[in-house]
Design brief:
With 182 residues, the protein is an alpha/beta fold. The strands form four sheets. Strands 2-5-8-13-16-18-19 form a seven-stranded mixed β-sheet. The chain is built from two helices and 19 strands. 14% of the residues lie in helices and 29% in strands. It has a single domain, classed as UDP N-Acetylglucosamine Acyltransferase, domain 1.
Length: 182
């Protein structure tokens, strides 16, 4: 039987889209302004735009949010990003208008191929279309699209696409009911 050999791991092919200086500057900006208790969303939105993020109006970013690469982030209008959300955007994360990402949620664009000896990096983009709600401590995995007005319930894990106007729960998440908005 073959074994995992992490000494063979090589992600030299991966391009974060930012040079070493830009990544280092963002690291400190993220620690000071985002991944801290700093409360003012307007300043955070300004900082994200400085680093290349596309951010709409009316965006609320709560304290202790962690964003890997702002230059791989697109956020629509009237989006809420809750406390301790982690946007691990090794790939592009696109967030539509009127999306709520509740506290402690994870948007994870990266994973590893457990079938490969070198534990190769796998990267997939994430899209949250208009009106999506990601519940507290829920996880969206690489390559997933949450179609318009879908809901991922508290603590659930989306490993595949979520259909429009459906509520998903569990690990892996499955449909539990329709989302009816009155």
């Amino acid at each position: 039987m073959n074994k995992t050999n992490l000494s063979k791991f090589d992600n030299a092919w991966y391009n974060s889209g930012g040079n070493a200086v830009k990544r280092l500057l963002w690291y400190f900006t993220n620690v000071v302004w985002f991944n801290s208790g700093f409360p003012l969303s307007g300043i955070k939105v300004f900082m994200l735009r400085l680093y290349g993020a596309k951010i709409g109006s009316g965006v609320v970013i709560k304290p202790r949010v962690n964003i890997k690469y702002p230059w791989k982030l697109k956020v629509g209008n009237n989006v809420w990003i809750g406390e301790q959300v982690w946007i691990d955007n090794l790939g592009v994360v696109t967030i539509g208008d009127n999306v709520c990402i509740s506290q402690g949620s994870f948007l994870l664009c990266g994973n590893h191929d457990y079938k490969k000896e070198a534990f190769d990096l796998i990267v997939g983009d994430i899209t949250l279309e208009e009106g999506v709600w990601i519940g507290a401590k829920a996880t969206v995995c690489p390559g997933v699209t949450c179609f318009t007005h879908s809901v991922l319930a508290v603590g659930s894990v989306a490993t595949s696409n979520l259909e429009a106007y459906k509520i998903y729960q569990g690990n892996p998440a499955s449909i539990v009911r329709e989302r009816i908005i009155q």
